[in-house]
Amino acid sequence: MKIRSELLVEIDGPLPDSCLLPKHYVIEVESEITECTCGMGLQRRWTEVRHPIGLAIGEPEIIHRVKCCSGCETSFRCKEIEKFIAPGCCYAFDVVVVVGLARYLYHRQNAEIQHDIFRRFKLWIPTSTINNLANYFLDYLAGVHYSASKAIKALINNNGGYILHADGTCEVGTDTIFVVIDGITELVLDASKMPAENNYDIECLFKRVVQLFGDPLAIMRDLSSRIAKAHKNVVIEDVVLLVCHYHFLENVGKYLCRELHGKLTTTMNKHKIRASLRSLRKDLVRYSKTGPAISEEEISKFLDNPNEMLDLDHVQLRRYLAYILLRWLADYTAEFNGEHFPFELPGLVFYRRCIKLYDRLGQILNAYQLRPHELQTLQTVMKKLAPVREDAKLVNLVQRLDKAENIFTALRKALRFDNPGKKSLSRRHDMAMTINTALKLEGRLGAFRARLQKTIETGRDPDRITDSKIVIRYLNKYWDQLFGHVIYVEGRREPILAMRTNYVAEHKFGNSKQGLRRKVGTKKLARYIQAMRPEELFVSNLAKQEYLDIVCGGTLNHLSAYFAQHYTPGMAIRKNRAKRKTSHPMPVSKKKIRESDLLFKVANGIKVYLEMMKPCPRAV
Questions:
Q1: Cβ contacts of residue 407 below 8 Å, gap of 6+?
Q2: Rounded CA gap, 92 and 133, in Å?
Q3: Can you give the pTM of this predicted structure?
């Protein structure tokens, strides 16, 4: 029986007619070749029986009659069956595609995938098998990706070349997943997993990328020196090396403000300002339940026209007003733009709100001669907030932090990084920049550096001089890598504008971790990041039509057919993955650790080692 050679299973379509075939219907296959290359005839030697599962073929019983040459003993197998099922597998390529897309593209859990496949195709797949099929999907997808490297290279060369964005991510105690992305098309070109960001592994990854896709136009990196060394050892000198402006500013800001901000937070905590006011706010809520309730509408009317609402219960009204002030103070995070330290200084923002509330209450309460128990709650608030004005050490610390914040804000403005726009920095969206802005950036930053130099030479404030020296030291160290985003390519009319940040890589990592949380339902991802495979990052390429045109004929419906065509490199990846590995850099089994004479053996080993060493004279 001849088997169809194409799979056209609609991923979200109706149930294929072939899935309605009876279970274990028989298909007999054998090679159509009748004569060996040596000229001898072929004979049937043995028969293999398989029971594969597929969406297009259902659950047949395949009787495979293998032929052999009567002279040289070469075996000839039917190749048609490999268009559906990889050798040594029980599940067809189309099942692997459906499972892989559900797992990595739609982030579904094993039970969801299992029930969805049964609902649509009447096939029941064990949940333990789904994990294996998902890994096969990554193997085959990586094989297709590397097989299509020439076509991908042609695609990125149509844009004039590619800009290499390199970055790594990890959780505490896990290996690092390192990715290389084209900043123009935002395609993941390659990914690797390494124990840590080390020179050797990064250089190996860069060599593979350069071998497959050629030299990049530029490399965008964070402040990691290891990526810079890989650039120096692997990529040609003409390639521009750029530093991510976000990481640059983050490092400068932390150097300027981290110690001061930490001292401010510690000092505020010693005075227990936030804790005591939180406790007072809870007491107000508890006491308010003992009196007549006041609606939010009545409170709003009172605040708009106090003279018209004096018929409210006065005790309750005082509680509500005090509660509103404390809620306003606790809501200091409303002033944030979605950024994080050091782009926002939460301790300083909270202190400024405390100052504002303390001064405003002081103006009101000091205007009246209040007895000790009048407006007692507001007087208590004043007492708790008093250190923000009366603690000289705290006031001086805030003034010093203000100076550091001012010079950091000026640096952000010079880099045109002061306005995050509609999207916050924490959402990891690239800061917009035009070609005109990029060309003027070096001049703006040069003028800013000149002003800092003048402050150092003529300034009288030692704090500002110290901060200016810190910023100038950073600027001088990374000056050549902060510019060059406008890249002119021969034969191209318009220049290429490189991104100024590494957000494209950060965004890929963020989406991957968000998908992990969808699957596992937990915030702590350390164990799952450790188990995560770097090939998962290739899945994001499937959302781009230009990539689909290259690797699977323009539609995901053909992905299983392309898996069948290029399963050989995927099988090599699968074989390498199957090798026993350990996440420990210096492995030793528990069986060895628990041996009763372990300490004796180790001590004896140290003794032998010391005896082998030549005596080394002590330093004088």
A1: 256, 452, 464, 467, 468, 471
A2: 10
A3: 0.81
